[in-house]
Write a structure and sequence with these properties.
Elements lengths: L12 H14 L3 H61 L1
C-alpha cells in the first residue's frame, strides 16, 4: 500500500482477542486485518447508501407514475366513450 498514515485505535480487549485469533489463522498482522476489515465495512456502507438512495428515488417516481397512469387512464376513457358515442350515432 502506498500513502500509509499511522492511526491509533482503541479496541475492547475481547474484540482485540478475536482479531488476534483471526490473524493467527489467516493474516500476517493486525494492520493487514484491520485495513481489509475497514475496506469491507466502507464498501458495505456505500452499498447501503446506494440502496437507500435507489429506494427513495423509486418511491418518488412511484408518485409520478401513479399520476401519469391516472391521467392516461382518464384520457383513454374519455376517448373510448367519445368513440362509442360516435359509433352509436352511426346506427
Amino acid at each position: 500500500m502506498t500513502n500509509l498514515k499511522e492511526v491509533i485505535v482503541s479496541l475492547p480487549n475481547n474484540l482485540l482477542n478475536e482479531i488476534d485469533g483471526f490473524i493467527n489463522e489467516e493474516y500476517q498482522d493486525r494492520n493487514e486485518f484491520i485495513s481489509e476489515a475497514m475496506e469491507v465495512y466502507i464498501e458495505q456502507l456505500r452499498k447501503n447508501r446506494f440502496r437507500k438512495e435507489m429506494k427513495e428515488g423509486y418511491l418518488k417516481m412511484a408518485q409520478v407514475n401513479i399520476y401519469l397512469a391516472t391521467e392516461s387512464f382518464l384520457a383513454e376513457n374519455k376517448a373510448f366513450f367519445n368513440y362509442e358515442g360516435r359509433l352509436a350515432e352511426c346506427d
